[in-house]
Amino acid sequence: MSGSLSISPAWHEFFNAAQAATTVANPSTRILSAAGLEIDLSLQIHTPELITASEQLLQSCDFERKRDELFDGALINWTENRGAMHTALRGSRAPEAIQQLVQTSLQKMAAFVEQSNQRNQYTNIVHLGIGGSDWGPRMVWEALRGQRTRRTLRFAANIDAQAITAALDGLNPHDTLLVIASKSFTTLEALTNAKRALQWMRDGGVQDPLKQTIALTANPQAAQTFGIASEHIFEFWDWVGGRYSVWSSIGLSLALALGWQTFSDLLRGARDMDTHFLETPTLVNAPVQMALSSLVNTTALNYSSQVICPYDARLAGFVMWLQQLEMESLGKFVDRDNRFIRMNISPAVWGMPGTDSQHTFFQWLHQDQRGAPVDFIIRRHAESGHDSHHQQLLGNCLAQRAALWKGQSLEQARQQLSQQTKLSTQEIEALAPHLIHPGRRPSTLIVLPDLKAHALGALLALYEHKVFAQAVLWGINPFDQWGVEFGKHLARQMVNRDTAVLDAVDTSTAHWLQQLGLCD
């Protein structure tokens, strides 16, 4: 909590208890159950005293009231004066008017999927979005497409022409559906790629490409102006943040490709986690306890990053989805009272699937001066029919987690070398320091029953609620993104060749704007 000028008594108690807990050699087993997932927090720093201090911190932040406000539609996004009702999208508790909007949207989506199936339309879907309009659907598709799929789904997000070219390559424009996913329907990347794709369809002989185009947006008027018929516009609302939008009409591409039942199961898994988060006492509430562990690691112990290692190759996209969720939500430095925050918050999130990660950055995790906490994610059962592969996968995960916590002292390194080699005493003394592993590196183990839609939905909602709990405890707004908007504003000026931007940027940027022909 370096640099803090003024913190509450509850924060002082939490900080002191966390520091004291680091000296406890063998913490007790802590495994929580939530929506079919098991969350093992045993190797996070904890003691009875820290748990008590954590409960007091939650009370001091009025956490339970703020949790209720999330589900009740209160204006918890205070800088934009609106609610954050993504939980309503999966049928969780919400005001009746919101429930009706969601139900109407789901019925329209389901009808379109059924009609497309009955008519045997669209072999291929090309989903055009970026940020939350891309990461969520892309991640779910990559995780679940190994199951039976009805259609091929491709994505183009980056404005680099290579992205849309690759997405369209080899497809037949006559049986391709274009999906333009943009909350504002002004997103530069989505609309630029959409125009390129529509021209590709015309060049391929499609007379009216807009008849094979749908819009997923919170701005239906802009979509109509673009030329898309109202029956092909699937609306969501300004209270759905982009990084929370996979549950909305943004998920229509998934419903078309994976089937309506799979999409429904995804929503159901998230809804079950909502129920756990809303109704379970905080002491055994998985998202809340994960959030508290993050506070210990980040604010009390000064870890600056959080590593995510899913031991399932299909969850590679989960890391990128989570980067947006956590870093766009928590990357703030002003609290709800408009004060600058003077304690460490918001770790950088990074990682990749195991066992690839073991051959990439685990050396750093084991022997860097600080390292980082790790969330390990596994599934309990093999799903490929190759049980021996799965056993090796699980063994590797558990071994790495155990090694990060156990570590190895200098004396243990000496003993190991003396037992396993014929080195001289002098050689052992020279080599042993390099075999020291600090240990006591915290981690969480999340065990999925399988990687099907329900479990995946529960996993995503687990982290959504963890992030919300962190934000409440740190006193920040997790639902705005003013940093993103600042960068977008400058980009629009540059793309529109606004010469006024030359006076608003540094000399290097001004130089390159002129050198690269972006400013006259």
Descriptive notes:
The structure is a single chain. With 520 residues, the chain is α/β, with parallel strands linked by helices. It has four domains: 9-60 and 280-406 and 442-474, Glucose-6-phosphate isomerase like protein, domain 1 (Rossmann fold, 3-Layer(aba) Sandwich); 91-267, Glucose-6-phosphate isomerase like protein, domain 1 (Rossmann fold); 407-440, no CATH class; 482-515. 48% of the residues lie in helices and 10% in strands. It has 19 helices and eleven strands. The protein has helices spanning 9-21, 48-60, 63-72, 96-118, 132-144, 161-168, 188-203, 220-226, 252-258, 260-279, 286-300, 316-330, 362-367, 387-406, 410-420, 425-431, 453-474, 482-495, 507-515, and strands spanning 31-34, 37-40, 124-128, 152-156, 176-181, 213-217, 233-235, 305-310, 348-351, 374-379, 443-448. The strands form two sheets. A six-stranded mixed sheet has the order 1-2-11-10-8-9, with helices on both faces. A five-stranded parallel sheet has the order 4-3-5-6-7, sandwiched between helices. Strand 6 (213-217), helix 8 and strand 7 (233-235) form a beta-alpha-beta unit. The longest helix is centred in the first third of the chain and has 23 residues, at 96-118. Mean pLDDT is 94; it is low at 1-5.
